[in-house]
Design a protein that fits this description.
With about 230 residues, the protein is an alpha/beta fold. It is built from 8 helices and 12 strands. The chain folds into 2 domains: about 120 residues, Rossmann fold, CATH 3.40.50; about 100 residues, Winged helix-like DNA-binding domain superfamily/Winged helix DNA-binding domain (Arc Repressor Mutant, subunit A). InterPro entries: CheY-like_superfamily, OmpR/PhoB-type_DNA-bd, Sig_transdc_resp-reg_receiver, WalR-like, WH-like_DNA-bd_sf.
């Protein structure tokens, strides 16, 4: 597995490089955003570990640029700020996961294993899921409703795919966190609710048939519900 680490703290770089090398990973390092972006676009990596605060070009800008040209590479964002706003900003830029500094190396290792499992998961080519005019293509990872394309971030797409593969089931916030992000989040954040609202605006607003429903005290359910069903 080839990993690009874009990080400007020498001490952290040393620990991460030593630890990941011992685990058998091939590590390349960039100490600023511009160099990291150049390396990410010129070479093939399986995973990019990207710090939020970088000299030259910040991690959000780097992440957006990488994502505009490469939708497949995994991106793990490192941030010293663990607020919901900062987490969502990183995920919206195209990151697949985040890790708050300071962290233990075992936490980083767990996130990398998690992302590796998620990114290596394959779907049957051409397979699709559909409900009430909403359709997602599991190969191209795109979504449409009534033929109209819906622009989704990587996180929004994973959330929608999880809902569509679990139609008519009540899903708790913990289940959603474990399956969409594939790791335990700090339950003090409201990341799930934030992304549910994002998704509702994109797939439900303007359509008479709503698909995402709150089950108070339990979580959410994804099902077709016409106005007279309410």
């Amino acid at each position: 597995m080839k990993i690009l680490l874009i990080e400007d703290e020498p001490g952290l770089v040393s620990v991460v490089v030593r630890g990941l090398t011992e685990l058998g990973f091939e590590i390349s390092v960039a100490a600023d955003g511009l160099t990291g972006l150049d390396m990410a676009l010129k070479h093939r990596f399986d995973l990019i570990i990207l710090d939020l605060m970088l000299p030259g070009m910040n991690g959000i800008a780097v992440c957006k640029e990488i994502r505009s040209q490469n939708t497949q590479v995994g991106i793990l964002m490192l941030t010293a700020l663990g607020t919901t706003e900062n987490i969502v900003t990183g995920l919206d830029a195209g990151a697949d996961d985040y890790l708050v500094k300071p962290f233990k190396f075992t936490e980083l290792e767990a996130r990398i294993r998690s992302l590796s499992r998620r990114l290596s998961g394959t779907q049957k080519p051409g397979s699709k899921l559909a409900l009430a005019g909403l359709e997602i293509d599991l190969e191209s990872k795109t979504a449409r409703r009534n033929g109209k394309a819906i622009a989704l971030t990587a996180t929004e797409y994973r959330l929608l795919e999880y809902f569509m593969t679990n139609q008519n089931k009540v899903l708790s916030r913990i289940e959603i966190l474990e399956n969409v992000w594939d790791i335990d989040f700090n339950m003090g954040t409201n990341v799930v609710d934030v992304y549910i609202n994002y998704l509702r605006k994109k797939i439900d607003n303007g359509y008479p048939v709503k698909l995402i429903h709150t089950v108070f005290g339990m979580g959410y359910i994804f099902k077709e519900e016409k106005p007279d069903d309410v």
